[in-house]
Protein 1
Amino acid sequence: MYILFKNIPIGIHDQELANFIKSNFKKTIESADLPISVAGIEILEKQDNFCHPIEQYALVRISPNKAANITIKEFNGCFFNQLQITVREYSTRSASNDPRLKNPHLAEQPFKEKRIKDRRNHVLIPSRLV
């Protein structure tokens, strides 16, 4: 099962996240006696216009599914390097669920202008003479 870790600290590498997950596995799943595999960690980031990272995400594949469900319950809301992280099951978007495809005649309708008048001020005053 793929799990999405949101709001992880910027600059964290996949090995550091794997160590964080495995260290907490030892605390929470010792009684379950499950062989746990944390693999396939992919770090993603959301960037601003200047290519500076704003947020980092991690996609982690955890097997078996029983361990993944326990991971979601245990890690959701916990703190990782002074940041509270959100953990949930990752789901892919499907193009077949797009509501725009279910109503094709919505796209055929012409654009209707709803503004009555222009709100911009057209009088320009020079602030500095060059």
Protein 2
Amino acid sequence: MRRRLPLLLPASMLTLLLAAGCGDACLKLADQICSCQPDQASQANCQQRARDEEGVFNVRKQDEQFCQHLLDSNSCDCKKLDTPEGRQACGTSISLAPPQGGN
């Protein structure tokens, strides 16, 4: 359970910001990410948030393609989402500071 705690915020963010408004590929991606939640109640809540927000965002073709790419490349499986690198590859990491320049 403790190792899944870092997934709660990224899954929520992706669900609400990316997957919620997208078409089938993005909803599938949201479901895949939600399946990484530690229990069925958390999974169901995550999936419900995705569906509740479905009509909020305009879906662009590139959004759908991005979600499909993440699905095809298996970038968002649960084991990968357990690592900072995996969350970054899935597009669910938060950068709190800008990357360091070439100083």
Protein 3
Amino acid sequence: GAQRAGEGAIPEWTGGIPQHERTADNLYVHPFPDDKPEFVIDAKNMGQYAEHLMLGTATLLKRYPETYRLPVYQTRRTAFFPEEIYAATRKNAETATLSGTDAVKDASLGFPFPIPGSAAEVIWNHKMKYRGPTARRYNNQAIVLADGSFTISKLVEEVMFAYANIAAPGQASDNLLLMYRSRVIQPPKDAGQLILVHENTDAEMGGRRAWIYNPGVRRVRRVPDAGYDNPSTGTDGNQTNDQIDMFNGSLARYDWQLVGKKSVYIPYNSYNINDMSLKYTDIIGKGHINQELTRYELHRVWVIDATLRDNVRHQFGRRTFYVDEDSWTIVGVDCYDARGQLWKFQEGHLVIAYDVGTIGGVPELIYDFQSGRYFATAMVNEDKPNDFGVEFDEQYFSPQALKKSAIR
């Protein structure tokens, strides 16, 4: 669904990174190790580039004028997906429909809406993109205080994708998007907590189902409301459940507007910050991450505005989403409070998993402009690399299996 042609500093898309394997120890090799920044955007020259900056980015440049800067590199349109996804996407363009904001129908395997006619369709492309058949992520999260001190929380996350699974293609009509399990490793007060989620493609047929095992009560129970702005486990309230993966879950509490496309400096090909030799003390700094480790490029994005509907609750009164056109991945979100003031900014540092043929934010950041704190999630530097080849049985993602795991 992206525009193949180039535009100014944005080159033509010619197929992305060629698919190849990781190293023997399962690490990604930087495909462009000799690249150097072409220029740097800082608080002094940001006016020259204002039309290409997300509001959250501009706010960080102004807030930390001495330390926050954007090293801008050559734009490389490296995103790609397997041929099966492209073929299915072409078919979906003729058949897929969206009822309201939360019921996708007649889509199979690929992106449902390559020619989106609404904002909600763009968001569903992000939610239903190909990510491989399964994944295990050793998720390290930093809760960073205003003085730069931080604590690490850890969890292991496991996913089996029902939709966009080439090995076992699912239909949107099957009403199952993915199955997710997580185990909290730390902090100690949450250690041993297990969460199970079945995410659906059609809220009209039941929506999300979730279960939790809490070691304190030693039983598995159904969670009636596991989405929206409920706090995410192990984040000390710095991340809402629907901010995981930049955005997930139901769209029903917002009115969605498709603003259009624009070219924006966004984090892309972020292999440097994911170097496994780095320590979290190398990455985490006061007020923001170490921007010397980042890489920004000019890419076209879809801009989406979401405004909270009357008579429903959410801590964010409005959100502006920036969605990479080549991958349908949300790369930035400006989050406003009920007064209309910019409160938080989400930023995903995109990396192409070239052995799989997908792209995602590693790490993802949430800057809080009111408290001066920020939250970093999806870091793997001091842990194991993400595993996209792990094998699961569907039964593993049942409430009964969750209970057995808790007992062990």
Protein 4
Amino acid sequence: AIDFQAHGGYELFTQSDTVLYEECLEKIPYVNSLLKDVFRGQKDVFSIKDDPFSFGNVQKQLIFNEFEGQLDTGKMMRAFIVKCAKNSILIMNSTHIDSFYVKNEQICLKTNISEEIHVNKLIIATNGFASQFLNLDIQPARAQVLITKPIKELEIKGTFHLDRGYYYFRNIENRILFGGGRNLDKKGETTTQLDTTDLIQSKLEELLGTTILPETTFEIDARWSGIMGVGTQKKPIVQEIQPNVFCGVRLGGMGVAIGSSIGKQLANLVESTNV
């Protein structure tokens, strides 16, 4: 129902980032030793692989993780909606919660619709948007994205991280989805505004032409942005913040990968408070 493609993941290093590149290569055996128990003694998770895609302006050997894969997030969300419907869970789109308060042992949600909503328990799981409700170490981080039009005979398959992880790209069938560049304007990208900027979009196009598709003609099909939740630590925050109010936030840009796990942790936490 979700569609998982195990093409593997690649870490790319720019030609000028030699020090970090060599440091990461040196640490591969150590990281693999830490992951052996996680992957139950299978072969090493990370290895070194010659660049099979003819990228430009990067180190010619890449760090490869054959266990990384791609999710079809559209199918994932459709499966989520179907599961909610089967369990009689109501999804209210375009409803903004402005604030909440406790009254008569119930939690009252003030929204942009005319009526207040009253619930027994409240879970805040809006990640970077949650900073308006929570006095915790979390702030929004916008990530800008673009996607190309279909590219004939595209050979790039997999998920890729470039320039210390500030850029991410993957193939979606015969297109390239490419996002990142928040490091170009961290202050400006600390926002919940779902806009794009010329500064970052221009850099994404430049890197497409010089690094990812240096010998290929491409056209941009669409551009958009999304909001992540980050903080001084990578560890997500899963806790009860006041009686019957819980949160699962600060997913650090890994929401698609770890969101289901955070959901299970939250469910277990809520259930434990009923005992």
